[in-house]
Design a protein that fits this description.
The complex is a heterodimer of chains A (247) and B (256). Chain A has helices spanning 21-29, 65-73, 105-116, 120-134, 149-162, 179-195, 206-212, 230-246, and strands at residues 2-14, 36-49, 54-58, 80-85, 89-92, 167-171, 198-202, 215-220, 223-228. Chain A has 247 residues and is of the alpha/beta class. Classes of the chains: A alpha/beta (247), B mainly alpha (256).
Chain lengths: 247, 256
C-alpha cells in the first residue's frame, strides 16, 4: 500500500530568506553567491505499510515527521529513493488550509472534499454523514469565521474520514477538539484500521500513539532511529527524553 | 493520484470558481455593481480627458471606450491578481497533492464571469446610442471568450509560478499591465496609430483581441483574418506559461 525505499529529501535553505530581485542583485555585485545550506530533511528512509496498518511517527521538532507525510501525500518529490503509494489519500490538513472563513460549513464541506479529490456526486452522497458525525448541523449554514477552532477541527476530521479514503494522514490535529470528540475520533480511527484503511499519524501524545498505532517510527535528524511495535519504541523514546533532560 | 477523472477536475474547478464568486459578493452588498463601477469610472475619466479636453475624433466615444475597457478589465484583474494565486494558497499546496493549475483556471474563470456579467451594461449603452446587439454575438462572444481565456491563462500561470521564486514579479506585473494598457488600442483606435508604429502595436497579442471585441460589440462583425493571429498568440502564450509552470511546479511546496 505504502512503500518507501531509500527515500531522501533535501531542502535548500537560502540564508537570505527574502526572495527579492534587489537582494539577488546586490549580492551579485558584492560577489556573494547566494549562500545555500543543504538540509537533509529525510535520509535513506525505507518502510512498508500494508493495508490496515497504522503508523505513528514520533521524534523531536524538525526531525522530519511532517516532511515524511508530505512525501507520502505526493506534495514534495524526494531527491532520491522510490515512493509507491496506492489508494486515495485524505490528509487531515491543518485548520485553515482548504477552508474559507467567509463560506458556510456546507460550502466548506464541498470545497474541502473537492480539493481532497472527490467529485460532486460523491460528496452529495456523503454530505449527511459528514454533518452527522461533526455534530454541527445547527451551524452548517453559518460562515466558518464564526466557528471555534474546535468546531473547525471537527468539520475537518469528519470530511477526511467520511469520504472513504484508503490512506488517512493525521498531523497533530486531534489536539484541538474537546475530550468528547477526541474519543469519538479515536474510535473512528480504530474502526478504520479494521476496515483496512492505512493511517499515518504524527503526534507528541504517546498515549494516543499507543492506543491508535500498530507500528511506531522514531525519526531523528531525518533518519530512522527506531521502527517497531509501539511499546518498545515508545519506551526507548521515553528513556531518551529522560536522558536528554538530565544531561 | 495522477489519474483522476475529468469529472472530478470539472467539479473542482466549479467549486473553486463558485468560492471566489461567493467570497467576493459576501463581503460587500454591492458586489456586482463594484465590478462594473471600476471600468465605468475609468471610461468617464478617459471621456473627459480625451473627448472633452483633447477632442479625440472618434464617434460614440463612450461606447468605444467601454467595449474595450470591459474585456481589458478581465485581463488586468486576472494578471494583476495572479501573483497571489499560489502564494495565497500556500497552506493547501504544502499539504494536499492536487493539480495546482486548477487554482489559476478558477481565478481566470471568475474574472471571465465578471466580464460576462458586464455585457448587459454594454447592451444598455448600445441602446442609448441607438444601436442593437447583433446575432453574430452568439458565435463571436464564445469564440473571443475562449481566445481571451487562453491568453489570460498563459500570462497568469507563468506569473503566478514565477512569483513563488521572485516575489518582485508582483510589482513588475502591475507596471507591465499599465504599460500594456496604453500600448493597446483601447482609448484610441488602431487607425490613429502612426504608420511606422502600427505593426508594432498590433504585434501586441492583446491588440487584436481588444479590437475584435470592439468590432463585435459595436459593429456586429467578427473578422476572421483578425482572429487568426489571436489563435496563434494564445496557443503560444498558453504553451509557454504552462511550460514554466510544469518546470517549477514540483518545487512549489519547498519554496512556499
Amino acid at each position: 500500500m505504502i512503500s518507501l525505499q531509500g527515500v531522501s529529501v533535501k531542502y535548500r535553505l537560502i540564508k537570505e530568506k527574502k526572495r527579492s530581485f534587489q537582494a539577488h542583485l546586490i549580492n551579485y555585485f558584492k560577489g556573494k553567491r547566494i549562500q545555500i545550506q543543504v538540509l537533509w530533511a529525510l535520509r535513506d528512509i525505507s518502510l512498508n505499510l500494508n493495508k490496515g496498518e497504522s503508523l505513528g511517527i514520533i521524534g523531536h521538532n524538525g526531525a522530519g515527521k511532517s516532511t515524511l507525510l508530505k512525501v507520502v501525500s505526493g506534495v514534495i518529490k524526494p531527491a532520491g529513493g522510490i515512493v509507491k503509494v496506492n489508494g486515495k489519500i485524505a490528509p487531515l490538513i491543518e485548520l485553515s488550509a482548504g477552508f474559507d472563513p467567509e463560506l458556510t460549513g456546507r460550502e466548506n464541506i464541498y470545497l474541502n472534499a473537492s480539493i481532497l479529490g472527490f467529485s460532486r456526486k460523491e460528496i452529495d452522497k456523503k454530505y449527511d454523514s459528514v454533518v452527522e458525525f461533526s455534530e454541527l448541523r445547527d451551524f452548517i449554514d453559518t460562515p466558518l469565521k464564526n466557528y471555534s477552532s474546535g468546531m473547525i477541527a471537527r468539520l475537518g476530521f469528519s470530511i477526511a474520514t467520511e469520504v472513504d479514503p484508503d490512506i488517512l494522514i493525521i498531523d497533530e490535529v486531534l489536539a484541538v477538539g474537546d475530550a468528547w470528540f477526541k474519543e469519538k475520533s479515536k474510535e473512528r480511527i480504530l474502526e478504520f484500521r479494521k476496515k483496512g484503511v492505512t493511517t499515518l499519524f504524527v503526534s507528541h501524545n504517546m498515549e494516543e500513539i499507543k492506543s491508535l498505532c500498530s507500528k511506531v517510527l522514531w525519526l531523528e535528524h531525518g533518519k530512522i532511529k527506531m521502527l517497531g511495535d509501539p511499546e518498545s519504541v515508545i519506551s526507548e523514546y521515553g528513556k531518551e527524553v529522560i536522558r536528554f533532560s538530565e544531561a | 493520484m495522477k489519474n483522476r477523472s475529468l469529472e472530478y477536475y470539472k467539479d473542482l474547478i466549479v467549486v473553486l470558481t463558485q468560492k471566489e464568486l461567493k467570497v467576493k459578493y459576501k463581503r460587500s452588498f454591492l458586489g456586482y455593481l463594484w465590478s462594473i463601477a471600476n471600468p465605468l469610472a475609468l471610461a468617464l475619466v478617459f471621456f473627459i480627458a480625451f473627448k472633452v479636453v483633447m477632442r479625440i475624433p472618434i464617434e460614440n466615444y463612450t461606447l468605444f471606450l467601454i467595449t474595450g475597457l470591459f474585456p481589458w478589465q478581465w485581463f488586468s484583474n486576472s494578471v494583476n491578481g495572479s501573483p497571489a494565486v499560489f502564494v495565497g494558497n500556500a497552506s493547501l499546496i504544502k499539504k494536499v497533492n492536487f493539480r495546482r493549475e486548477v487554482l489559476v483556471i478558477a481565478t481566470v474563470l471568475n474574472d471571465m464571469l465578471h466580464f460576462i456579467l458586464s455585457i448587459p451594461v454594454i447592451v444598455v449603452f448600445l441602446f442609448i446610442y441607438g444601436m442593437k446587439p447583433s446575432l453574430i454575438w452568439l458565435a463571436g462572444i464564445p469564440v473571443l471568450l475562449i481566445l481571451q481565456f487562453i491568453v489570460v491563462f498563459g500570462f497568469s500561470i507563468a506569473i503566478s509560478s514565477i512569483n513563488l521564486f521572485f516575489r518582485d514579479i508582483e510589482r513588475i506585473v502591475f507596471i507591465f499591465t499599465t504599460l500594456m494598457f496604453y500600448l493597446t488600442p483601447i482609448i484610441y483606435s488602431e487607425d490613429m496609430i502612426p504608420h511606422e508604429f502600427r505593426n508594432l502595436i498590433l504585434l501586441n497579442p492583446l491588440s487584436t483581441l481588444m479590437i475584435s471585441w470592439r468590432n463585435l460589440f459595436m459593429n456586429g462583425t467578427l473578422n476572421f483574418p483578425d482572429i487568426i493571429p489571436c489563435f496563434i498568440y494564445s496557443a503560444i502564450l498558453a504553451a509557454i506559461g504552462y511550460f514554466i509552470f510544469r518546470k517549477l511546479n514540483w518545487k512549489f511546496a519547498e519554496v512556499l
